[in-house]
Structures are given as structure tokens and as C-alpha cells.
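From: lab user (bench 3)
To: helpdesk
Subject: output format question, protein + adenosine-5'-diphosphate

Hello, I'm new to running complex predictions and I'm not sure whether the block I got back is the full result or only part of it. Here's what I submitted:
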Amino acid sequence: MSSTGTPVAPLPDPAWSWIEHWPAEVQAGSFRQRGLALGTAQVHALGRANGVQPARFDALPDGDRTLRVVEAALDALFAEFPGGAFVRLGSRSAKDTPLGLASGGQACTGAQALRLLSSGSRRVAHDLAWALQQQLTPWIWLREWQDIPWADEWRCFVRGGRLVGVGQYHAAQVLPSAHAGRARAALPELWRRAAQLSRALARPDFVFDVWLRDAGQAPLLIELNPWGPSTEAGLFEGDAGSEASLRWRPAAGEVAVEPFSAPS
Ligand SMILES: Nc1ncnc2c1ncn2[C@@H]1O[C@H](COP(=O)(O)OP(=O)(O)O)[C@@H](O)[C@H]1O
Ligand SMILES: [Mg+2]
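Helpdesk reply: Thanks, we reran it on our side. This is the complete output you should expect:
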């Protein structure tokens, strides 16, 4: 319901998972961040500059000037992130490009951020074009840069509002053994978080990624993804998920599967 009591149409899948559509209580559990909503001309200019599927974006006579306005607005936001920021659209990042991979998505200026988002990304092209088609406003987000140890990033699967799977995010790598213990210790907290997110999102099925920080700090939400084939299932690939389990890779070619149940 809106504040006037009018029913609000649900956002189409996967737009509900875009950062700009997260309820405030969901945002509160994630990175410190600042966002910039893009106007239609800005979306066209960025889509053109990105160079992928250019026909889906209008060639504006003043496209460069349009992007300079975005750059200046981003520069103002970067003042709040002296250590740099992770740059992404609300939908996804440009981690599918050589620059996205080489930089890890980190930028310190508006120019660097725009370079990342226009570095020939199929993800950026797809999401901007889809937003235009759906008449959605895409946002650029700057998220406080944090050095996240790869072994502390975990993917959590929620089905029917309950946590049914937790797996190491970088599924191909052998996990140092202490990190599995850390995930096991976090299960009650992740169970609670899954239920809280499900309530806040009014959604039974989804996938969320977390950074398991040091003891005493709540797991930090990295992002939300739809439940289904568009979201990589990692160590849960091809699994019907009959029993809730924690999964990690203890050695090359092996997967450890440890069932868990609701905390008492
Ligand atoms: N604020 C941040 N600081 C440092 N690294 C980050 C930050 N946010 C995300 N990352 C890293 O970048 C990866 C991709 O970010 P994510 O927000 O999940 O975007 P995408 O939708 O493209 O996967 C994450 O898996 C994480 O390893
Ligand atoms: Mg991700």
C-alpha cells in the first residue's frame, strides 16, 4: 500500500532486487552508500557511451555534455567516500568487462565511475535498455569501499521465507578451513536475517549475499538476487534443496554438505 492507501503494483522481476527499491530497513543492513537517479537522456547517453547494443539507445547531439552533468554529480557524492567506492547500477555492476575485473569495481572520481559503467558491459547495456522499456528509473550507486576477504563472502538461499542454503560465494576455490566454522557460527544470525528480509521484501523466495565480518558485527548484506536460473547457484547447482545445508569446498573437486535446521 502507498501512504494514501492505494495498492502499489509489485515491481517486475528482477527490479525489486535493485538497490533503489530496497526498503529502508534492508538498506540499513548493507554498505554506507549514496545513489544518483538517472534521467532518460542520461540513460541514453550512458548506454551509447557503453558501446554495447548501441541501437537500443538514442544518439543525443549533446550526449557528452549530458554525461558531464552526471560526472559532476558523482564527484560531489565521492566527497563522502575518501577511500573510494564500489560503483554499480542498482541492478548490477560492470564486473563483466576487463576494466571492471581489473579495478574490482572501485573508483574515486565521477570520471572513473563513468568509465567503469561505459566500459563495454553487456550487463549495463541490458539493464539500462530494460529499464527504458519498463519505464523504470535506473540509479548509479556508490558504496563505501571495503576490502572483503573472498572466503568471507557467502550466498544465502531463501525459499518460502526460510533459509534453505548457505554456500561459499567463490564456489570454485578451496576454502581455508577456519572460514567454514565461521559460516557455521553465523547460521542462527543468517536464519534470522533471511526471515527479516523476507518480511521486509514481502517475498518468500530470493537469494542474498553477505559478508561475514568479525565476531560481534552483523553480517553485511552485499546484494539481493532473484531465486531462479538467472542467479548462479554455486555449490547448490542442480540441487532440488530438499534439506537445508551449509556447503563449502574443503579440497579441490570436493563439496562438503552439512545439514542445518531452525535454531532452537
Ligand atoms: N562496497 C564494496 N567494496 C568492495 N568490494 C565490493 C563492494 N561491494 C561489492 N563488492 C565486491 O564486488 C562483487 C560484486 O558486487 P555486487 O554488489 O554483488 O554486484 P553484482 O550484481 O555485479 O554481482 C561482490 O561479490 C563483492 O566481492
Ligand atoms: Mg553480486
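A quick orientation on your result: The CA atoms of residues 25 and 200 lie 7 Å apart. Let us know if anything else is unclear.
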